[in-house]
């Protein structure tokens, strides 16, 4: 299939409602993770635990799709290097953790990444059916949180086994005398996350009145889960959305792009806080937001590098491999005593991949400057702020959504900008130009 035909094929997928392979797998992950408490409980009761892994099995196809779409069709050297680096990091992780089970868990952890990358040349707004599923998930998740305030969900406290490790599908947490409501999710953090990300993806096509009303309800629902950081991110997004909507039509996209590029400054926040407040007692009462922040500054963000310098000094540069200082190490490695929760996506990913991750993020930043998809820009903006204090490798949809936003780095447009114009076979010039450089079609 020629490059022109590949582009036309993807446009045809959009015109039929956007239910392509990547959209199906995205929807499977979304439904499974957003309703994780329900899924775990009833699949175990019905002795159908294998159903939990259906999205992961389907995601294997997306690995092949990534190889074809990004490396073969788009001829992206960046995509090839990223794939090779992931393979190398899996090998380093196996050497560091010394566990075959941890290796398989690490491989499974990477599947959502490839699903998100498969959206590289896509306009998310064209996936109408997928977005409808996101909207339905949003409403049900909201309802589940409010319902759990008055009704004890049967899956709360339910324990299940995964890869030989015992977990709880819906542990009942209490935060300073406040009950953390989980709704239909596996825990309160997941419930809050899915309200946030589903609201973001749904709000883009909704009126200002809808955004204000449902934004307020969403903030209150997240407050019931006691995830104040997530609530703060939602409020920041809502304020920025109102500011952008108030601008003239021609200024909205450039302003959103500037806001998104500015959000990458969040990467520096942990570094600044570590320099300024390491060893400072931010919370004498040992509770509340500032105590949590103090723990991140003194432990969560620093200890992985302290332990890595002791266990594998070269890992400061090369990374200690996929799975290190993540749940594969916590659950399946003899190094679980060195595990600490790395509550920041960029720190956690750097620890695993090392300096190559810095190069990749620089290319992502450059690609973001040319993104025209409002959905991708909004997702990157929100996730950059959200992941300041969240690792976001669990649930799997967290990593998938980040990869979806970053996927533009593998697009045909970005590949052409980085690697120069491609040679077009005789007779294909007009077709390729018309297919690849067309103006985005508005979606009703």
Instruction: Give the N-terminus to C-terminus distance in angstroms.
Output: 30 Å
Whole-number count of domains? 1
The helix-strand sequence is HHHHHHHEEEEHHHHHHHHHHHHHHH
Low-confidence stretches: 1-18, 169-177, 424-444
Shape: globular
What is the count of β-strands?
Answer: 4
Range of helix content: 55-70%
Count of individual helical segments: 22
What does this molecule look like?
The protein has helices spanning 3-15, 21-34, 36-45, 54-73, 77-97, 100-117, 128-148, 188-203, 208-224, 228-245, 249-263, 269-277, 289-300, 303-311, 315-318, 327-332, 345-353, 355-368, 374-386, 396-406, 412-419, 429-436, and strands at 159-162, 165-168, 174-175, 178-179. It contains 22 helices and four strands. The strands form two sheets. Strands 1-2 form a two-stranded antiparallel ribbon. The radius of gyration is 22 Å and the shape is globular. The protein starts with a helix and ends in an 8-residue tail after the last helix. The chain has one domain (3-419). The protein is mainly alpha-helical and 444 residues long. Keywords: Membrane, Transmembrane, Transmembrane helix. This is O-antigen ligase-like membrane protein.
């Amino acid at each position: 299939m020629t490059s022109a035909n590949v582009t036309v094929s993807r446009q045809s997928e959009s015109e039929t409602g956007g239910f392509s392979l990547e959209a199906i797998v995205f929807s499977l992950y979304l439904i499974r993770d957003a309703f994780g408490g329900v899924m775990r409980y009833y699949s175990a009761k019905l002795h159908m635990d294998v159903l939990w892994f259906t999205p992961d099995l389907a995601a294997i196809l997306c690995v092949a799709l990534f190889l074809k779409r990004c490396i073969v069709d788009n001829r992206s050297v960046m995509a090839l290097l990223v794939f090779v680096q992931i393979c190398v990091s899996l090998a380093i992780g196996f050497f560091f953790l010394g566990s075959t089970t941890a290796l398989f868990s690490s491989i499974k952890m990477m599947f959502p990444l490839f699903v998100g990358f498969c959206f590289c040349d896509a306009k998310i707004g064209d996936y109408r059916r997928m977005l409808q599923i996101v909207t339905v998930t949003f409403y049900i998740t909201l309802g589940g949180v409010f319902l759990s305030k008055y009704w004890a969900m049967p899956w709360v406290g339910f324990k299940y086994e995964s890869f030989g490790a015992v977990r709880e599908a819906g542990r009942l947490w209490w935060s300073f005398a406040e009950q953390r409501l989980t709704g239909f999710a596996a825990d309160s953090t997941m419930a809050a996350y899915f309200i946030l990300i589903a609201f973001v993806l749904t709000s883009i096509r909704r009126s200002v009145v809808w955004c204000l009303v449902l934004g307020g309800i969403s903030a209150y629902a997240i407050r019931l889960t006691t995830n104040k950081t997530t609530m703060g991110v939602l409020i920041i997004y809502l304020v920025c959305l109102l500011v952008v909507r108030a601008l003239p039509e021609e200024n909205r996209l450039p302003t959103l792009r500037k806001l998104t590029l500015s959000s990458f400054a969040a990467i520096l926040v942990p570094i600044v806080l570590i320099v300024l407040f390491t060893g400072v007692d931010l919370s004498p009462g040992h509770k509340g937001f500032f105590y949590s922040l103090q723990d991140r500054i003194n432990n969560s963000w620093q200890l992985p590098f302290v332990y890595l310098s002791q266990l594998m000094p070269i890992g400061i540069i090369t990374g200690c491999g996929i799975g290190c200082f993540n749940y594969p190490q916590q659950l399946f490695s003899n190094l679980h005593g060195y595990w600490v929760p790395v509550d920041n996506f960029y720190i956690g990913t750097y620890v695993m991949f090392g300096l190559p991750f810095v190069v990749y993020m620089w290319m992502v930043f450059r690609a973001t400057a040319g993104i025209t998809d409002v959905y991708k820009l909004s997702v990157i903006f929100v996730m950059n702020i959200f992941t300041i204090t969240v690792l976001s490798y669990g649930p799997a949809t967290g990593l998938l959504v980040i990869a979806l936003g970053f996927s533009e780095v593998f697009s045909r447009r970005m590949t052409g900008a980085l690697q120069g114009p491609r040679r077009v076979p005789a007779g294909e010039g007009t077709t390729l130009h018309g297919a690849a450089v067309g103006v985005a079609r508005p979606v009703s």
